[in-house]
């Protein structure tokens, strides 16, 4: 009888994971302070994609900072339609991250006269719901060197705006974004040798608040000037992003769902 009850329990848990996967995100594998654990629960969907660097927990996002390249390897954040209110003004308060030691972080001087923008990974727009959330997007740990005109101020900006429109339509969105480097011979800028990505990926996952209709779309955009309305040309699969980055997205999701979701090349939402 005990074995039968155990079997029934496991079967129900499996069915629950299939149909309500987006609700039950994983819990941290290590003990975290309450504020960090709250950030993890809010912004990490089905486990860390990787933990090679320093994990930083913010009110509006979580990131894994590569202390050698001085750029995050991934940034993960949750958006809802209610989060898109703009209660505070944009501050442009760019500054080094005080939670990273000198020599393992980028500085303002690294970007000066570099020819590259300080490009947001978790964007300031969409995070203006309160002062702390907006301000923390301007920490340099959340920045990467991006081509300015035509990319950071072009196609990347347009894709971020598209994500906000999807958020208004779909209500519940998770975004994971970060850099890609073409081999080991990448360009660096500044005294701290901040790595310049050759491309950027963005993975967008949506589900209803009840947990059904799990859907995903992924992009890899080259870090160069491109027409703003062509980001649909750069749709790819999550599998391809994993191949290019060495990361493992959605690792705690049911394997069958994960494999299907990551292999599918979505059409434009």
How does this structure look, described?
It contains 7 helices and 11 strands. Helices cover 29% and strands 22% of the residues. The protein has a 7-stranded antiparallel β-sheet. A two-stranded antiparallel ribbon has the order 4-5. The chain has a two-stranded antiparallel sheet with strand order 7-8. It is an alpha+beta fold and 269 residues long. Residues 2-21 have low confidence and may be disordered. The chain has one domain (2-263): Extracellular Endonuclease, Chain A (3-Layer(aba) Sandwich), CATH 3.40.570. The relative contact order is 0.15. It is globular.
- Low-confidence stretches are 2-21
**Structural class, judged by helices and strands?**
alpha+beta
The rounded Rg comes to 19 Å
Oligomer: single chain
CATH superfamily: Extracellular Endonuclease, subunit A
Number of helices, counting only DSSP H or I runs of 4 residues or more: 7
Mean pLDDT across all amino acids: 90
Sheet with the most strands, sense and barrel status: 7 strands, antiparallel
Report strand %: 15-25%
């Amino acid at each position: 009888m005990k074995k039968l009850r155990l079997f029934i329990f496991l079967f129900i848990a499996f069915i629950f994971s299939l149909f309500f996967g987006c609700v039950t995100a994983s819990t941290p594998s290590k003990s975290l302070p309450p504020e960090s654990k709250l950030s993890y629960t809010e912004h990490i969907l089905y486990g860390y994609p990787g933990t090679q660097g320093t994990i930083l927990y913010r009110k509006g996002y979580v990131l894994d900072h590569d202390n050698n390249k001085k750029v995050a390897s991934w940034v993960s954040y949750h958006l809802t339609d209610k989060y898109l209110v703009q209660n505070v003004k944009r501050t442009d308060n760019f500054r080094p991250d005080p939670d990273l030691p000198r020599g393992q972080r980028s500085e303002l001087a690294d970007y000066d006269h570099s020819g590259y923008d300080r490009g947001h990974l978790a964007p300031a727009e969409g995070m203006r719901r309160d002062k702390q959330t907006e301000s923390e997007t301007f920490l340099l740990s959340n920045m990467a060197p991006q081509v300015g005109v035509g990319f950071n101020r072009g196609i990347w900006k347009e894709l971020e705006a598209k994500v906000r429109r999807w958020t208004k339509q779909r209500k519940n969105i998770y975004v994971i974004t970060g850099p890609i480097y073409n081999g080991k011979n990448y360009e660096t800028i500044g005294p701290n040798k901040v790595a310049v990505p050759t491309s950027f990926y963005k993975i967008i996952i949506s589900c209803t608040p009840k947990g059904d209709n799990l859907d995903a779309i992924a992009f890899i955009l080259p870090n160069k000037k491109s027409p703003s309305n062509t980001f649909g040309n750069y749709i790819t699969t999550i599998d391809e992003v994993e191949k290019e980055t060495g990361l493992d997205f959605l690792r705690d999701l049911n394997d069958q769902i994960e494999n299907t979701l990551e292999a599918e090349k979505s059409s434009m939402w």
